[in-house]
């Protein structure tokens, strides 16, 4: 006999699979159910990527239009979540490229990236900052980072995706995702230290 | 031994582990790498401090305020999708209707031929036409009918496309 928890989980999985199957048939209710399920995660991802609520809302709508248009070609053996985020990623990157075509990595004027410029022996004043749970500062610092770094951080720490899942969403090799995550964390650490030392945190 | 109390071999391992600390703090290392990092952390104070600092950072990232999608956004998106879906269905229905019309038109014109053969005696006598003239008239009529249908289909198709773009 199954426990209520297992039954609930199994029921949720079955109903989710049904929604995805119905989605392929262009069923509006199925799309609405899936939209309900992913609304906050997708909106959050878009907001982290483009930083403007109005643009995030626009891209949110475009993502669901794309989902509806491509539903027929969706392979149900593939994870719906990764497929959805891959669509969102493509739309966000296209938007950012149109807006700032020079680079999504935003290198420093010297040609270095922020990570290369990180002093390796900076004092750990960061502990003081984070111990005070001033997570607003962290959010602020993340928002100032290049889009590629913001993206990998939000997928890992907010969406709690595994490296393999992030690699599938971004259509990148696993090694490159590892490097990007490493560089993003080092960069964030450096930015926060610099801000704290120069008193730029409000 | 160097100034930090490590020999060259330890220093090499230290540098390698140092590079893994961010990924360890992010919780994405495989079991073997994670064990390697943990073993190193027991004996290296500098790496332990760095790992703790990174751990606090990743903790703060997980604790960020999660923005929620505005309620109106979902409703608005649903309305847009419904309109698009409706337009898609209308378009499909129109294409089907157009296709059926074309098939009907073509069938009708093709069926004219046996009908014409049945009546060609009385027709030739009434208008004093030769068999060749009759065939030419019939062929011209068929081509004009087909051309007309194709033109109508193209105009309607273009209109559907424009309607689709405005949605």
CATH homologous superfamily of the largest domain in chain A? RNA polymerase sigma factor, region 2, helix turn helix motif
- Distance between the terminal alpha carbons of chain A, to the nearest Å? 57 Å
**What characteristic shape of chain B results from the CA principal axes?**
rod-shaped
- Give the low-confidence spans of chain A: 107-123
The CATH architecture of the largest domain in chain A = Orthogonal Bundle
Q: Residue-averaged pLDDT of chain A, rounded?
A: 79
Order of helices and strands of chain A: HHHHHHHHH
Count of runs of 4 or more consecutive helical residues of chain A: 9
Secondary-structure blueprint:
The complex is a heterodimer of chains A (about 200) and B (about 170).
Chain A: H1 4-24, H2 28-50, H3 53-70, H4 80-99, H5 126-131, H6 135-143, H7 147-158, H8 163-170, H9 174-197
Chain B: H1 8-25, H2 31-43, H3 45-62, H4 71-127, H5 131-166
Helix pairs in contact in B: 1-2, 1-3, 2-3, 4-5
Account of the protein in words:
- The complex is a heterodimer of chains A (202) and B (167).
- By secondary structure, chain A is mostly helical.
- Chain A has helices spanning 4-24, 28-50, 53-70, 80-99, 126-131, 135-143, 147-158, 163-170, 174-197.
- Chain A has 2 domains: 4-99, RNA polymerase sigma factor, region 2, helix turn helix motif (Rna Polymerase Sigma Factor, Chain: A, Orthogonal Bundle); 126-197, Winged helix-like DNA-binding domain superfamily/Winged helix DNA-binding domain (Arc Repressor Mutant, subunit A, Orthogonal Bundle).
- Chain A starts with a helix and ends in a 5-residue tail after the last helix.
- Helices cover 85% and strands 0% of the residues of chain B.
- In chain B, helix 2 (31-43) crosses helix 3.
- The two termini of chain B are 73 Å apart.
- The chains are: A mainly alpha (202), B mainly alpha (167).
- At the A-B interface, helix 2, helix 3, helix 5, helix 6 and helix 7 of A face helix 1, helix 3 and helix 4 of B.
């Amino acid at each position: 006999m199954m426990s209520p928890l297992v039954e609930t989980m199994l029921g949720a999985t079955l109903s989710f699979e049904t929604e995805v199957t119905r989605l392929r048939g262009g069923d509006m209710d199925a799309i609405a159910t899936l939209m309900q399920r992913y609304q906050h995660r997708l909106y959050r991802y878009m907001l982290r990527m483009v930083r403007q609520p109005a643009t995030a809302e626009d891209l949110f709508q475009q993502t669901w239009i794309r989902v509806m248009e491509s539903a027929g070609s969706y392979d149900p053996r593939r994870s719906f979540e990764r497929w959805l985020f891959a669509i969102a990623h493509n739309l966000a990157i296209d938007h950012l490229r149109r807006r700032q075509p020079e680079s999504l990595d935003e290198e420093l004027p010297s040609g270095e990236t922020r990570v290369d410029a990180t002093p390796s022996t900076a004092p750990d004043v960061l502990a003081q900052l984070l111990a005070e749970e001033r997570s607003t500062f962290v959010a602020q610092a993340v928002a100032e980072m290049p889009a590629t770094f913001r993206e990998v951080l939000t997928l890992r720490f907010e969406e709690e995706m595994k490296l393999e899942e992030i690699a599938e969403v971004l259509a990148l090799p696993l090694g490159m995702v590892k490097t990007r995550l490493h560089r993003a964390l080092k960069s964030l650490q450096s930015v926060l230290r610099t801000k704290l030392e120069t008193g730029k945190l409000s | 031994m160097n100034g930090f109390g490590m020999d060259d071999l330890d220093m090499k391992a230290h540098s390698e582990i140092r590079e893994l600390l961010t990924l360890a703090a992010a919780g994405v290392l495989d079991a073997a790498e994670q064990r390697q990092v943990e073993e190193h952390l027991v004996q290296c104070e500098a790496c332990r401090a760095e790992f703790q600092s990174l751990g606090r950072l990743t903790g703060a990232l997980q604790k960020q305020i999660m923005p929620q999608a505005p309620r109106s956004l979902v409703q608005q998106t649903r309305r847009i999708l419904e309109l698009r879906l409706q337009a898609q269905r209308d378009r499909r229905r129109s294409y089907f209707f157009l296709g059926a019309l074309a098939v009907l038109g073509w069938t009708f014109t093709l069926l004219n031929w046996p009908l014409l053969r049945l009546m060609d005696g009385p027709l030739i006598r009434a208008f004093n036409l030769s068999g060749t003239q009759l065939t030419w008239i019939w062929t011209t009529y068929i081509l004009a009918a087909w051309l007309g249908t194709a033109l109508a289909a193209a105009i309607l198709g273009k209109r559907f496309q424009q309607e689709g773009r405005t949605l």
